[in-house]
Amino acid sequence: MTFDTNEDSANFSTSTDAKSSDKKALLSSSTKRKRKNPPFTGDDILFNPVRGESALWVAVITQAMMDALSKSKNKEAQYHKHEAIRWLTESSKDFIEVCLNAGLNPDDVRRKAKKAIANPTLWRAEAGAGKRYIERKTYREKQKLKTRPKTTTPPTSQIIIGPWA
Questions:
Q1: What is the pLDDT of residues 14-30, one digit of tens each?
Q2: Which of 12, 80, 113, 141 could anchor a disulfide with 88, C-beta 3.0 to 4.6 Å?
Q3: Vertex 69: Cα angle to 67 and 72 (nearest 5)
Q4: CB atoms within 10 A of CB 113
């Protein structure tokens, strides 16, 4: 390929460069997906192992709370309940380490755990009594009414009356 220094060739090369850049911009804009809400902001990467690890430790604390608030009469469940209450309320190195790994203040977690154990409240609605259950139930009833064939009664002039009736 030879390069000419005259104006025609310079114009030609810039016009083809402009066309190729326009083509690239058109291709990139048409193939890119636009997200309404990006999952991460800033310099976060899609795979964040630290975030997953902290979620694991939060799950450990949550499981301990669930065990501590359990109402099961099973001996094994009673044992786990006793151990969870002990772990959440007493001062231990394991509890502090788990809270710090979860990114939580151990004193706040302990205070909230003691409050929840002292005054247990329903954290889940009874079966068949929750808001979402009632919403789904009414939705299913509406769907049944839509799919059910409508029964029409014949006009009274077409009804045959006989001794069998």
A1: 444 555 555 555 555 55
A2: 113
A3: 75
A4: 21
